Amino acid sequence: MGGVLFMRRKGGHELHRIVARPFHEVRTEEDLHRFLEADPSLIARGISGGEPLPTVVVASHLKLDRGELDLLLLDADGEVTVAELKRGRTPRSTVAQVLDYAAQVKSQGFQGLAERDVDWDAALEELNDTGDAAEDLDADKVRLRLQRPRLLIVAYEIDEATDHIAEFLRGMGVPIYCIEFEYFSDDDHEYYYPRVIGAEEVHSSGPHDVRIDGGHGGSTVWACWC
Fold it and tell me: Does residue 15 belong to any structural domain of this protein?
């Protein structure tokens, strides 16, 4: 990973060059966690193409019997996403980790997760208030989707083994996807350029822009899903 961003002010002629930096050398995993928690639709819907659906965090740092899940997400279509975050390069064990979390989420079910302080009612109310929720979005639909949650690994770099294992599992019908990103920063902003691994298996549409709020110092920047 070693991309370069070139920026120019409207009407100007001078190009500003920003070189990608290794995220793990300047930021912590908790920084990544807080950033994605601020706008989870970026990762929850990035794999599908089109405009991101409203998405809410129903649990953050969810303590399970075996480990702690980074993010449990619900979108306006009722899709449940189990997301594991890594600030650096993924070890191959990450796939086993996210599979275990998904198995536990499915086993716990709607009520079991509610007993672990997952507030489904608040999440459903927030999504329905957006006006973009599916007409049939309710607790029963979430219960059904919990039987087959989507798995997502987000990292600065996805290692080859993780990529190949995830590809194999998708071929077997497991909805597991990986997102890696390049990280850029200057004196005023941070920029995250995410790339979905295996995106060609999900959609054939071209790149589309998404708005990212919550950059360094409260800045707003743009990234491009490719």
Answer: no
The string of DSSP codes covering 125-168 is HHHHHTT-S-TT-SHHHHHHHTTS-EEEEEEEE--HHHHHHHHH
- Provide the domain limits for residue 194: 22-225
Residue 5 maps to a domain = no
Residues 109, 71 contacting (CB under 8 angstroms):
no
Q: What is the mean pLDDT of each run of 10 residues along the chain (226 residues)?
A: 69 73 68 79 61 87 96 93 88 94 97 96 94 92 96 90 94 91 73 71 43 39 38
CA–CA separation, 217 vs 39, rounded Å? 16
Domain assignment present for 150? yes
Identify residue 102 by its one-letter amino acid code. Answer: A
CA dist., res. 211 & res. 220, Å (int): 7
Residue 222 has what pLDDT?
A: 38
Q: How many domains does the chain have?
A: 1
Tokens of 201: 């298996």
Length of the chain: 226
Instruction: Dig out the tokens for 162 from the structure.
Output: 């993780």
pLDDT at residue 214, as a whole number? 38
